[in-house]
Structures are given as structure tokens and as C-alpha cells.
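lol ok so funny story. i was supposed to be doing the assay writeup but got distracted and ended up predicting the structure for this chain instead. priorities right. anyway since i did it might as well share w the group, maybe its usefull for someone
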Amino acid sequence: MSYNLIIAPEAQKDVDDAYWWYEDRRTGLGEEFLGCVDVCVQTICRIPDLYPVVHEHYRRALVRRFPYSVFYEFTPESVTIYSIFHSSRDPKKWHTLLK
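and the output, tada:
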């Protein structure tokens, strides 16, 4: 099944900020980060119920190799990504991002 992908502006900002942070550390590392996020998002879009529900109806997928989680929900028509959250941030904060 094909899902319409919706990325919240906050999630896109998370990705953009992380890309530049990694790219400043080492040229090309930001691209590696984007590649890992893309693989995670593609997996979510292919099999959205693969990852566990962590709060109400929101699910969390872990990004391989980088300490980020993707928080999302899905309906029969779409997958909506609300946050791409660094694991060192206050874990209570992602609850506020989903409201």
C-alpha cells in the first residue's frame, strides 16, 4: 500500500538543524544522517505498523546509526511525521511536540 507522506514543519526543522550540526562536524556526515533518516522514513511508509505505539496513537521508529527517533502516526491514507527527536533531549519534551 502507498501512503501519502506528510512531514510537519517542526520535524523538517529537526532534520535541517541536525544535518547542519553533523555537516559542521565532518563534511559528508550530514549526508549520511539524511540517508539514515530517509531509510527510516521509507520503512515507516512501507510498513507503518512495524514500530510500537509509545503515546496514545503515536509511534516511534529509531534511526539507525544516529541517536534520533521518528515520531509519527498513520491513517489508511497517510503517514504524518511530527518530530525527529534527538535522544539526549528531555524525554518528556516529545510529548509536548505531539499535541
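The CA atoms of residues 36 and 61 lie 12 Å apart. The longest strand covers residues 78-86.
back to the writeup now i swear
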